[in-house]
Structures are given as C-alpha cells and as structure tokens.
Amino acid sequence: MRAMSRRAAGLWIVAAAGIVALGAWRATWRASTIDPDFLTGWILAAMVAALAIYGVRRRLPMLPLGRASVWLSVHVVVGVAAIGAYAIHVGTAWPAGAADRALALLFLAVIASGVAGHVLQAILPARLARSGPELIYERIPAEVAKLRAAAEDALVEAAGAAGHETLSSYYAQTLAWYFERPRFALSHVFGGHGAEAWERQRLAAVEKLLSADERPHLAALAELCRHKRAMDAQYAIQTLLRAWTFVHVPAATAFLAMAAWHTLIVHVYAG
Amino acid sequence: MHPQLRGRIAFAAAALVLALVVILAGGFARDARLPSSLDAGPLSASHAAFIGEEGCSSCHAAHGRGATAWISAALTALRTGGPHAIDGACTTCHGFDGRDALAHNAVFEKRADLSPTSCVSCHAEHRGASLRASAMPDAQCQSCHAHQFHGFATGHPPFSPWYPSARDRRTSFDHASHFSKHFVDPRNAELVPAGQCLGCHQPQKQGGAVASLGYEATCAGCHDQGIARRDLVLMRWPELEPGPQGPEACGTAGDVPDPSPVSLDPANALLAFLLGTAADDQAAYADPLRKLADAMANKGAEPISALAASRLGGDGAKLLRGLSGETARMAACAWASNREHEPPGGATQPGWRAEGLELRYAKPGHGDPVVRAWLDAIAASPRPADADDAERLEAVRAEILGADGPGQCLKCHAISGPADGPRSIAWKQSPTPQRQLHRFDHRPHVAAMPGAESCGSCHRQGDKPNPSGFASIGIEACTSCHQQGKAPDGCLTCHAYHQNHALKPRMTNDAR
Description:
heterodimer, A: mainly alpha, 2 domains, 9 helices, 0% strand, elongated, B: 7 strands
C-alpha cells in the first residue's frame, strides 16, 4: 500500500510538472514555426489515446500487461492532467463552432463522469463492506425474491398458530411493499439509516397489536427485514458503482470519435 | 447493467457521432442555417462581408474539393507544424511593406534567431461578428518583446533623446530663434505669421507629421531676400601671368596685354576642384586654366558644362542651364586677355552672369533648379581616390554646402549621408521620415486641447533643443493622460505591428 502510494505520488508529481511546463511554454510562446495550438492539441490527443488504452486493457485481463491498480492510477492521473492540457489548448473561451461545442460538451461529460466515478470508487467500497458480505450483483434480485418468499412463509405459519391474520394483514398493507424489490437506494448510497428507521417504526406499530403467539413470528420477520436491508444496501451501492461507467464509457467513446473528426478538420482547414 | 450493454451503448454513441458529423459536414453547402460539423464559428463582420458565394473556400483551399485535397491539406499542415498555409489566403488581400512572414515585416539583422511568423500567430477568426482581428492584447506584443512591463505608464522604455524629431530631418527650422528673436523683433511685426503655431501648421487637418503650410506661405516674406543674396560663384579668375596674346577665337591677336596679372587672388574652391589643381598653385592651374579659357572662347558654355559633369557626375546641361554661350565666350576672352569682363548693359537679372573676374549664378530664388543641381551634384559626388583631390572636394563642400552657401539652401534643408562620402539633400518638406511602427495622430489631441496654446503642452522649448528648436518630448508628456483608467494605453495605441498595412488592389477592385 505504501509502495503504491509512493508510485501514485510520483505519477502525480510528474503529471503536474508536465502540465505546468506545458502551460509555461504556452504562456511564453514566441512566434515560431511550431503552432502552439497544434502542439498542445497533439499532446492532448496523445493523452486521450493513453486514457483510451485503459479501456482496452480492461477488456484483456488475461494478458500480462501489469497490475490493474497501476493502470487505474495512471488512468486517473492522466485524466486529471488532460483537464489542464485541455485548458491550455482551448483557453477559457467557449468554442464558437457547433462541432467544437459538441466536442467540448463531450469532454466535460467524460471528465465529470470520470471524476464522479473516481470519487464513488473511493467512498462506496468501504460502505459496501460495512453492509455485510458482498453479494453477486446479478443474483441480488433473486435473493430478494427468496427473502420475500421466506417472509410470506412466516406469515402463513403465524396465521396458522394464532388463528387470525393480524400480522398477515399488516404485512400486506406495509411490509409487502418493502419486500417487493430493493428499496431505499438513496439512503443506502448516502450511508443513511432511513430503511432501518422505516422498519423499526412499522414493526413497533404492529407489535402492540399482536398476541403472544404471534410475536415470535414478528421477530422472524424482523430478522428477514434486516437481511433485506443489507441486501438493498449492496444492490444500491453496486448499482451506482456500475452506473457511472454507463455515462463515462459511452461519453468517452463518443468523445474519441469527435476528437478524431476535430483533428482531421483542423488539419484539412489549416490552409 | 451488464458490461456488454455498456459496450453496445458506447459503440452506438461513437457511431452516432461519426454519422452525425459526416451527414452534417455538408450542412453549410446546402444551407448556412443548418448546423454543420464543419462550422468553426461565425466569421468577423469584416471577413463575412466579402466571402460571398465562395464561402469557406475563400480562405480554405481544400474546402469542397474532395478527399484528395483534404489529404493533401492535412499532410501540409502536419509537415509545416501548423496552419501556416492559411497565410497565403490572408496575403491574397492584405499587403505590407516588407516580407509577410517576418516579425514586423522586417529583417532584424542582429536577430538571426527570430523565426518566421504566421498570420495566425496573432490573429484569430471564427470568434463571431464582433471580432476585430486587428485588436491585440498587450500580452500578444510582450510574448516576443523581451522587455516586460505592465503598462505604458508603468515600465515602458523612455523615448529616444531626439523624440519626436529624428536627427536627419527633411528641413531644419529653428523654432527657438524664430520665437525668441525674430518674431518679437518689431521690424518683423507685419511678417510674423498670425496665430502662433497655427499660423504655419494645421495639426487639426494632418495626422502624424505636421508639415508647415509651405515656403511661400510661411517663410518667403522674410527669407526671399537672404536667398537672393547668396550667389553661386562658379569661376573666379585667379592670378595668372599674362600670355603673349589672347585666344585666337577672341580676335585679340596683336593686342598687347597688360604685363601685370589682372587678378592677384587664388582660384575659388569650385574652380580649383573642376581643374583638379591646387587653388593657389599658379604653376599647376595655369595650363589647364588657359586650355579651359581657350575652349570656352571657342565653344562657349559647353566646355565648362562638360568639365563640371565629368568632375561632379551631375548633368552638365542642368548645371549650366541658362548660361549663354556668348556670355561664357566673352568672359573667357576677357580673362584670357588679362582683362576684367564688363557685361553689356549692366542689368543685374537673376541667372548666370559674368562680371569682373567671376562667372556666377546670381540672385537665385527658392527652389532654383540650377542651384539645386549644383548642390545635389556636389553633395552626391563620391570621395575621390586622390588625397589632394579629396581635400579640394572637401573645400568645395565646406563653401557650397554650408548654411550660408548659395541660396542659403542648407540653412533649412537637411543633408544626410557620410561626411566624406556621397550625401543627399532633402528638398521636400514632406514626407517627414516616419517611424514605420509608430503612429501619432495630432488630430484627436488638438481636438481635446483646442487652441494654439495647446501645442506648447508637448512642444516645449528647453535647454537641449533638438534640430527643430524644441526640447525632446519625454514619455511623461504622454503618460499624464495615457494610463489605465484615463486615455488608452495599449501597445497598439501608438505602435503598429505591420509596416504600412493596406488592402491589395485585387481586394479593392473586387469590392467595387
């Protein structure tokens, strides 16, 4: 971990020095045969290409191309450095042409989604670990269905033992909604206790109406709610950890296509 | 949220972008109102006004010319390292004095390290109709100029000690002596131009260099007489032992000349130089002088004209314009016969006159072509290789090219060039030597400070006057107003980057 931190620090220093040097060169540029916009544009293009290679690397995990964590570190550092290179290349003015505006919007979308994703990757895994053993994302809906079935079995058993359907009726009016599918996504993502409070309130409300025979079944139902809550947290967090890539990757791919067009056009229309 | 779905969305996004840019590439060709993937942004109003039906191809050669032209243009841009090829489109309409692709359109011989420049190094386009392509921030200038400063009033280098008058002025007018001495002399009261400065200058009608209203309007009243008093003496017959008889052509054969020389003076400097002998060495000049006199006696003015042309390099006909052959012949006959020449009539009209022992050009007027021809020829004459000859030319120059020389021309007209080499005389008052990359317009300044007194706010008489008689103008005269928050203080307020930018005839013709 410490070695990785040193490596990351080194990457950040190199990237910051490179961007500062590029900015200083651009600021003190004197009339020469090298056009500053062309040079900074090609540097930015090289950085974009390096960022795109990360996506290729992810698709080829079987190849011995180095550790994924190193690739991710490089991707993040180069991505942030690309913001500086973009500012040096474009300046502060908003592009005037339709194509350049589209390119700028796509760049902003890629950067924004990338930064957001990096922040989520830093925060959510710890929250995911706190919510319990990690479940396979694709199996969570099935696991929720199993919990729902277990809850309904508990209700049938409670009705049989008590001879009336107080608990079943209450479940149908309140808890059935909860067990229907993953709930309280936002609360789980932000680390809130909304689901827990909701459960406690609902279970406490019905507890005083139940007979002594029914209360053990309510305790079983409460345990199922606790499992459901952990499952919901897993689902919400894992969904978010996947969702940002559905913005970042398509935006990045579209940006690459637009950047290629931009590169072609600025060269064709240079004379 | 399967990765495969994400991959499909990404592929679709890229495909959509490429499809859109290709489809919309022809948008402008069909209708300028349609969005186009070739739209780099709206043109400045000045450029948008003339592109007409040519559209983008007015400047971009590859536009609408197919894949081959696109590839060629892209490769050119890659090879040259930028959009330098667009310069050719710019200079189709915009012209400058000097080379297009050099800093300030000039060769800085001491700065071999300077790279070629490109229009797009400074100028931008496609930034909207309100863009002024010629407007530049100061930082643009300071990207090359090593001396960095924040503003005109805070760090701009001081003006030269001679600002605004260059040393080599076209005319030298001593304002100080005129204002302090001549204009206050009661004898000149009626001749002094009314209106102080505005009596001779009209800065409200002129831009940079404010010339006077001209000799006739401003100087002639006082200076015509002085000019007329300074004759050009071409020949002064020197001491010469009388010969046995005068030239045969003079018809004086048999006359017995006076035994004592008619002149006891040396030759004048101009004659000595023309003869190529020392002015006071009778043994040296006797023979060529007699030959010249014989020739003049036979051919009139032609021999002296030819001699002057060969020695000075000027046009003999211009130098001796108006000298009649008879005048030359009669004078030569008289002098060769050891007599003074007495002109018939005795009238003293302006022009060539032989009288006594001199052939002179008398009573020149302002702008006299003969005096100008002599002064030009003497000034332009190269330094002779022979040291004695060079010394004689210097003597001629000292006599003729001084402020009190013929016509007093050089009292006002500047002479420039090396002291011992060919020089030139500035006969025209205008144009005043311009600093190519500087500009100053008197008009807005006069408008802001009307009245003759306003001139003195900048043009002051001081202890160390420059050739105009005024103290040099320091930067503080400008920075009192031109500073941040007051009057404009950007580089381009006073400086121009290009040398004499103008639209080329093609452009103006097309516009018509």
